[in-house]
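ok so i was messing around last nite and threw this chain in just to see what happens. nothing serious, just curious
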Amino acid sequence: METDQPKVFISYSSLDEDFAELVKMKLEGAGIEVWKDTCQISPGEEWRSEIDAGLLNCDSILVLLNRNSTNSTYVTYEWAFALGSGKDIIPILLEDCEIHSRIRVLQYFDFKGQKRPWDKLIIRVKDFNSKKSKGKIKVGQLTVGELEKILSGSKSLAMAKTKNEGRSPNEGDIAEAANQLVNARNYLGNITDKTSTILWVDDRPNNNIYEREAFEHLGFKFDLALSTQEALKLLSKNKYAAIISDMGRVEGPKEGYALLKEVRQRDKQIPFFIYAGSNTLEHKIEAQERGAQGSTNRPSELIDLVTTHVQVKTNDTE
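result:
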């Protein structure tokens, strides 16, 4: 059952388990729903998939910062994933330590020594949630036509997710995809034709048919380009809500980055996403450092990346 409770993910080093549990208790005592790996991951479940699901389903991420966490590959993966997905990140500084530049620019809460500003932290979390809750679409508010689009789009998204696994989607896959598409609508509202076209650059566009169908059921349209030069010609003539690019093409093994460099020389703002074979931490961070909003090989994550970064006009705005 869906609630309006804030949902928070705690990212921390396993060496700080006790303090992370204290944070969880304090937030839950204030009516905040908390995702913490030792509580939410059952034995036998695939670790990375469950972590990703926890991150995507939360409103904000608390990152406990000290020397333990800043040296943790897992913590770095979590905040990089969160940044790419457009989530609000709230750093909690437990001790002076060397902090990555992407996190250092964010406003943090000082929990060094005996400092414990719990009330201010709780207010910040609830404030983030209240801003996101305004205008949120409930399933019961959707028309029959909108529900049909969600169902059709859910099947496409589930097909995209399971195609590489060599199986057909089951009811659970479709239900999960439906929930994700409803959440995507909460970010987008009812988008108009003027701002809904995405440029997708891939020399094998048939590999992404199901992904595009899922986006189309959210109201997006696509122009397709097979090469960097073709993409740049289209960019010179048209405006796009976002760009999605593969990585390796006939032109070169890192042609996605070549296109990204050309795009950033012309446009610093347009959201750019790498959709390729890798989903490793180092490739996510490298893509962001080169100017992309995110990098993934997962259809569900791509949906979240795009819908949280595109700037679209809604039918009720000018």
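not much to say yet. DSSP finds 14 helices and ten strands in the chain.
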